[in-house]
Specification:
By secondary structure, this protein is α+β, with helices and mostly antiparallel strands. It has 10 helices and 6 strands; from the N terminus they run ααααβαββαβββαααα. A hairpin with a 3-residue loop joins β4 and β5.
């Protein structure tokens, strides 16, 4: 089973396949490419479309310009996307570090804190993301996924999660994203999703596949380290740079899940 087959096609080849003229206005070209390719078209592609007109690479655009470009298409990437007033932080830089055996314990402490606030609301609380995969390099930020019965009923969980010490940063049609308040260490992210949703399943399947298949973990680690080297000052681009390999690995994970009768972990894991 292949660990991943991320496409190496040039941007020009992808534009041609989508029947987009290279001279098209960057935002229009990006939207048409997104219509053709779906999730495989990323914010980095928009950076490249803008930068190439100046003879630059995407990462050479000024950081502030990249931030504005990302914001301009976030509602396309995440339908219904909106930020929360007063939730800004200035820590745009990132670092990927070697796996830390203390990460599961840190997750457990946050899980206990959230359980105390979400009794009767959280149907599943899970450690997801790279810190949940033993041996995988990661940003030293614990990702916690909380599944609820009704994502739209924020009265059941937003204030309660904020009482645990993190702030609602953004909402979209698929999930709600919480991170520490400004001035606090960025040690955890909390993601709230609908129980039974594709979002919930994909994150748990991806984690379990990487835990079970070392070649996939190694392929993902290589891409993560490369992305961090290029996009150390751009958290959004760092995440977007991993999209291709994640989608490839998810395809492989789906086949793995069928062959191994994988199911969602029991609630409370």
């Amino acid at each position: 089973m292949p660990a991943g087959r991320s496409s190496s096609r040039s941007l020009d080849a992808r534009l041609a396949a989508a029947r987009v003229e290279p001279s098209a206005e960057p935002h229009e070209a990006w939207r048409r490419l997104r219509e053709a390719e779906g999730r495989r078209t990323t914010i980095i592609d928009l950076y490249e479309l803008v930068a190439r007109r100046r003879g630059l690479a995407g990462h050479q655009l000024p950081q502030a310009e990249r931030v504005e470009l990302a914001r301009s298409v976030m509602p396309v990437i995440w339908p219904g996307f909106a930020r929360t007033e007063g939730s800004e932080r200035q820590d745009l830089s990132l670092e990927v570090v070697a796996y830390d055996p203390s990460w599961p314990g840190r997750y457990q402490r946050w899980r206990d804190r959230l359980v105390g606030q979400l009794a009767g609301t959280a149907l599943r609380i899970e450690h997801v993301g790279s810190t949940a995969v033993p041996g995988l390099p990661a940003k030293p930020t614990i990702d916690v996924q909380v599944s609820v019965a009704d994502l739209e009923d924020e009265s059941r969980y937003v204030a309660q999660i904020e009482q645990a010490g993190v702030q609602l940063r953004s909402r979209d049609a698929l999930h709600r994203f919480f991170r520490p308040f400004a001035g606090q260490p960025r040690e955890v992210h909390v993601h709230v999703c609908q129980v039974g949703s594709d979002w919930e399943r994909e994150h748990l399947l991806f984690r379990d596949y990487l835990r079970s298949y070392p070649a996939a973990k190694d392929a993902y680690a290589k891409v993560k380290l490369g992305a961090a080297a290029v996009w150390s000052d751009d958290r959004i681009a760092y995440t977007e740079a991993k999209t291709g390999v994640i989608l490839d690995l998810l395809d492989a994970a789906q086949a793995w899940a069928c062959g191994n009768s994988w199911t969602l972990p029991r609630p409370g894991g």
